[in-house]
Amino acid sequence: MNVLHVFKTYYPDSFGGIEQVIRQLSNATEIHGVTNSVFTLSRQAHETPMLQDGATTVIRAPVDIEVASTPMSLRAIGQFRQAAKAADLIHYHYPWPFGDLLHLLAGQQTPALLTYHSDVVRQQFLMPIYQPLMRRFFASMRALVPTSPNYLQSSTLLQDYRDKCHVIPIGLDQGSYPQPTAERLAHWRRRVGEGFFLFVGVLRYYKGLHILLDACAGSSSRVVILGAGPVEADLREQAARLDLTNVDFLGAVSDEDKVALLQLCRGVVFPSHLRAEAFGVTLLEGAMFSKPLISSEIATGSSYVNIDGLTGIVIAPNDATALRQAMRALDQDAALATRMGQAAWERFETLFTSAQMARDYVKLYRKILDGAA
Predict the structure, then answer these.
(1) What distance in Å separates the CA atoms of residue 103 and residue 284, rounded to the nearest whole number?
(2) Which 3-state string (H, E, C) describes 131-185?
(3) What is the spatial distance between Cα 169 and Cα 147, in angstroms, rounded to a whole number?
(4) What pairs with residue 155 in β-bridges?
């Protein structure tokens, strides 16, 4: 079975949560006889139009223009048509409006499904223009896959397509993460110490990091921010303005260094405050390493991963005081942090492994292909 994944960006151009999901799913479905490829856009496509990510072939079309965070390419249409013909099934990762257009122009002859990672949030003002295209795209899908029951229940758009929806949670494979050497652990222990709260992710507007920095003001809790992104300069300026000496910005680091920091931290803090944060792969990573979790209640998958009072603490969004208190509670009660971290790991093992995700998707793939036949 040849499956073509479609998303606006992929490794090594970007290291976001959706890219991680595609990689984890591709790796985990190989043992079920699935051959995966990825179609994406890249500003490096002229130099490297194709590359390998393990056993996954990555097909890259050049970016011609970007509008409202949506890269587009006229030259991609012909390339995508060829890639779609070679696939048995196309797996779109939504939202990417140009992906909708690619399907309707060049991919409709191939059975397709989409994983619904998020509602369109920041670009809502464009919905009157985009909605006709989106509706045609959704109507042509054999299945829509929300990543949590929470998001299915709370997404107004998905209510119109409930008969097509199949919830499949995101899963990770701990074995795919590198084990840090003693030297790397010692390096980070010297650099940032232990017992800090760790944020990992692309620094975007919906991650709520401005709220986290406000929570750090007047707090004894230490916070390490791992990642880079569009709002990084604004966040650094805010930290300087607040004279925060308990926050470290580390930028982007290797996977080995990320694991080292996950092992050294007290807990994972994830202050995303908008529905653009549909799941929170970082929360899964924290649970995978037996860390208590702090997140906001935004009626998405983050509260499917993190159960308040069991695996961590869930607070109201946009509440710096509650966030400061949650960090203080885990700082001051090591037994509570350990207990919640253990519960987070147990929930991860039950619901969120890549093996379980792969089994569910392969079952759905086969159902779609059997129906198409």
Answers:
(1) 31
(2) HHHHHHHHHCCCEEEECCHHHHHHCCHHHHHHHHECCCCCCECHHHCCCCCHHHH
(3) 4
(4) none
The contacts of residue 36 (CB under 8 Å, 6+ apart) are 3, 4, 5, 25, 26, 29, 30, 55, 56, 57
322-358 as b/e: b if 16+ CB within 10 A: bbbebbeebbeeeeebeebbebbbebbeebbbbebbb
Prediction pTM value? 0.89
* 248: phi then psi, degrees, rounded to nearest 5: -120, 125
Same domain, 19 and 30: yes
C-alpha distances in Å from residue 96, one per residue of 6, 68, 77, 117, 135: 9, 11, 15, 10, 13
Do 75 and 181 sit in the same domain of this protein?
A: no
Name the domain count of the chain: 2
Owning domain of residue 141? 2-173+353-372
Residues 156 and 109 in one domain: yes
Answer yes or no: do 245 and 224 share one domain.
Answer: yes
Task: Give tens-digit pLDDT for 298-346.
Answer: 999 999 999 999 999 999 999 999 999 999 999 999 999 999 999 999 9
